[in-house]
Specification:
Blueprint lengths: L1 H33 L3 H12 L1 H12 L3 H33 L4 H4 L3 E4 L1 H21 L9 H21 L12 H32 L3 H26 L3 H15 L4 H6 L7 H23 L6 E4 L1 H30 L1
Antiparallel strand pairs: 1-2
Length: about 350
């Protein structure tokens, strides 16, 4: 039966992503209508595109599987940044190979708006730091309702600063049809069903493999929810929206560490396997720092960029995360067996 749940998880991951895209559509229309830049539009659109994380945490909290939701939150934020940059770079290379322009006219490397680092990546790092303060210190370790309230306020501030600093983009006329309304409602349904299957399937597979709920969330749900990001990033970057395609990952996971915290905080999810959580949080913080440093090294005029070497370094950080987390789990298993 385990393989059936694996197939179900893959289908559920794509169902939740499809549902999120339908929810993001009206928010994209708002961005176009009021002329927000690509960097500022990311946090706005993330209200829809990051909704799978909220859905998973709602289901996790409601079914008593809060540790699965916490593990999914932490794990997905580590793996998504290097995956997004790698897929975005591949899409850029594909565009370059099929373009009639000369390489010199296209520029070197994957280019993103310079403002994206200030509007998206660095505020995201600040939100990660806030989340660490809420759950890691011994005096108040875990998530309580007050933590959820603080996290929601942090997202309101983050969204506000992004929209304020990202004004001045090109405005356009927006139309909305009855079909689009039906698609949005269908997206809500797909999101609800997909989230339930993701949490339930993770519990079933984790139980069959003898994994703790937190570990199941880190290595099963997190990778499943990151899978659709590959296709989304590819299509957005291929369409020429490079900055939105790359930096949306920060907006998505800023919402993960703020609005998505609320369901888990309401049911007061404790932090178990503390050494594992501490290790993962270190890499959660490392990824945006590495993103900012590597992109800054390729500064040119009003943009930053990535070359293949930078993509490889981010991939190396992902491998280091997997090895370090596995080593901590192995050590804890050995210590408990003595």
């Amino acid at each position: 039966m385990t393989w059936v749940w694996v197939v179900g998880l893959v289908l559920a991951a794509f169902a939740t992503r499809w549902g999120a895209e339908q929810l993001a559509a009206p928010l994209k229309a708002v961005r176009q209508r009021y002329g927000f830049t690509g960097a500022a539009g990311g946090p706005l659109v993330a209200l829809g595109s990051a909704s799978p994380d909220v859905g998973i945490n709602v289901v996790s909290a409601a079914t008593g599987a809060g540790a699965v939701g916490l593990g999914s939150m932490l794990g997905s934020t580590v793996v998504s940044i290097p995956i997004t940059v790698a897929v975005g770079y591949a899409a850029f290379r594909k565009n370059r190979a099929t373009s009639d322009k000369k390489p010199a006219e296209q520029g070197e490397g994957l280019r993103i708006e310079k403002s994206a680092v200030l509007i998206d990546a660095l505020p995201y790092l600040a939100v990660v730091a806030l989340f660490a303060v809420l759950i890691l210190p011994p005096a108040w370790r875990g998530l309580q309702p007050i933590d959820g309230l603080i996290a929601v306020v942090a997202y309101v501030i983050y969204l506000g600063q992004a929209l304020f600093r990202g004004r001045g983009g090109e405005r356009g006329q927006v139309s909305w049809s009855g079909k689009q309304t039906l698609l949005t409602l269908g997206g809500v349904a797909a999101l609800a069903v997909g989230s339930y299957v993701l949490v339930t399937g993770t519990q079933q597979i984790g139980s069959a493999l003898g994994l703790a709920p937190l570990v199941s969330g880190l290595f099963i749900t997190a990778f499943m929810t990151a899978l659709p990001q590959v296709f989304t990033t590819w299509s957005v970057v291929r369409s020429g929206q490079v900055t939105s395609g790359i930096t949306s990952v920060f907006a998505d996971h800023t919402m993960t560490f703020t609005l998505a915290v609320l369901p888990l905080a309401i049911v007061t999810v404790p932090v178990q396997n503390y050494p594992v959580v501490l290790t993962v949080m270190a890499f959660v913080a490392l990824m945006p720092v590495l993103f900012a440093v590597l992109s800054y090294r390729r500064e040119r005029h009003d943009s930053y960029g990535f070359i293949l070497r930078d993509v490889v370094m981010l991939g190396g950080a992902l491998i280091a995360y997997l090895l370090c987390t596995a080593a901590v789990l192995f050590f804890l298993a050995g210590a408990s067996g003595r």
